[in-house]
Amino acid sequence: MKVIRKNIRVPDLALMKERHERIVMLTAYDATMARLFDQAEVDILLVGDSLGNVILGLDTTIEVTLDAVIHHTRAVARGANRALIVADMPFLTYQVSSEEALRNAGRLFQAGAAAVKLEGGRGVADTVRRLTGAGLPVMGHLGLTPQHVHRLGGMRRQATNETAAEELVHDALALEAAGAFAIVLEAIPNTVAQDVTSKVRIPTIGIGAGPDCDDQILVFHDLLNLTFAPAAKFVRRYADAGSLIRSAIEHYREDIEHHAFPSDEESYHLPESAKAHLLRKA
Ligand code: KIV
């Protein structure tokens, strides 16, 4: 039976894994969506650097700045009450040194995040240790890590052979040992995700990693068909908000063009006495 928690906190996630309760995670970038997702009892809202793609129209997440993530984290924090807010650490905000990472992560917490997410495995384990040692909860991210798009040669599936799968397991164990409280697994074969999930005690959160991760996340633009490209194999469209919005706006445009909006009922009126006075003066 699902226990409805009033507010989701980082330690709840370990308990939820122990109890085999599913954690529901979704991206969010503004207060309106955060409020709606909170009402729908989404447990974790990720202010992902995917905002570069879906909000700012960029091709990669590499141009996303710390200030941009701070700006959107503040908005999400204003909209959400119940959900745990995780903010992505953008490109080059945590790779230069652990001290710089700590300072940058601190700004995301000041903006309202309760945890940060960063990409990479053993290469960032010391930084994860520094942040968690300072009391800042960290979520890891392995598999397809979009900030490494140039090294990966594109947004493609990862861990597709035995060696790469073993490397990924080592990375996951290193993140766990460094104190990460959960790991996102993106675009990897389901059996690899299953293997990682059985080997770490912290929750795994899959996106394109099959059904055997502890939990799941999607970018909400994918889920609601607010993208302008064919969906990836792992995306399920739960609504066609793109068509809904387009047809509502077309209707609005037609109403204006045909003088059908606003109507008399949608207009403010003067009291009769003032109206008569105005007409007399005209
Ligand atoms: O930035 C993001 O939205 C993400 C998810 C795809 C996990 O990192």
Account of the protein in words:
There is one protein chain. This protein is α/β, with parallel strands linked by helices and 282 residues long. The chain is built from 12 helices and 8 strands. It has helices spanning 10-18, 31-39, 51-54, 66-79, 98-110, 125-133, 149-152, 162-177, 190-199, 220-223, 241-257, 272-281; strands spanning 24-27, 44-47, 84-88, 115-117, 138-143, 182-186, 204-207, 215-218. The chain has an 8-stranded parallel β-barrel with strand order 1-2-3-4-5-6-7-8, surrounded by 5 helices. The relative contact order is 0.10. Bound molecules: 3-methyl-2-oxobutanoic acid.
List the helices and strands and how they pair.
Elements: H1 10-18, E1 24-27, H2 31-39, E2 44-47, H3 51-54, H4 66-79, E3 84-88, H5 98-110, E4 115-117, H6 125-133, E5 138-143, H7 149-152, H8 162-177, E6 182-186, H9 190-199, E7 204-207, E8 215-218, H10 220-223, H11 241-257, H12 272-281
Parallel strand pairs: 1-2, 1-8, 2-3, 3-4, 4-5, 5-6, 6-7, 7-8
Helix pairs in contact: 2-4, 5-6, 8-9
3-methyl-2-oxobutanoic acid (KIV) binds next to strand 6.
